[in-house]
Amino acid sequence: YLNRGDCFFKQGEWTYALLDYQQAEEMLPPDTPAVRRRLAVTYNTLGLSCFQDGSSQKAVDLFTLAIKYNPTISQYYENRSKAFRWIPNVRESREDLIRLLILDPSNKEVLPMFMGLFPGCSISRVLSSSKGKAIRVELMETTQTWNSSSDPSWLSGSILKTTD
């Protein structure tokens, strides 16, 4: 199912890819890294499609699933932050922007997003706030747990090269 899902994904048939990856998830040991990464990439891709179509809430739901399957990818938080902004849910958008800042402080999208969500504030002030510190702790615990249960050898897989 993984290989067929990869074929569907590369053909842009994301729904079919998702179905195959979900089938593989049911058949393989729990938390198999190869399956989790593929599911995350696919949910993110579907989320981007929904966001581009104007379905912001559906996009948020899909980005949330991508994050559930791989909480270490800053792009997923960036995408969800943008979708939250359109709902609008400024609080959640801000929290995802903080996660993005922690995971990828050199991201070129951060500054324009930051200025819109935190007008008049500095990045250091937001990150050192009680909310910023709490999000950092939560994110570090989540990513550490995820990383300790993952197989880093799959990172070089071709599906990640084409989508991340």
TrEMBL record:
Gene3D superfamilies: Tetratricopeptide repeat domain (1.25.40.10). InterPro entries: TPR-like_helical_dom_sf, TPR_rpt. TPR repeats lie at residues 40-73. Keywords: TPR repeat. Signal peptide: none annotated. This is Tetratricopeptide repeat domain 16. It comes from Nothobranchius pienaari.
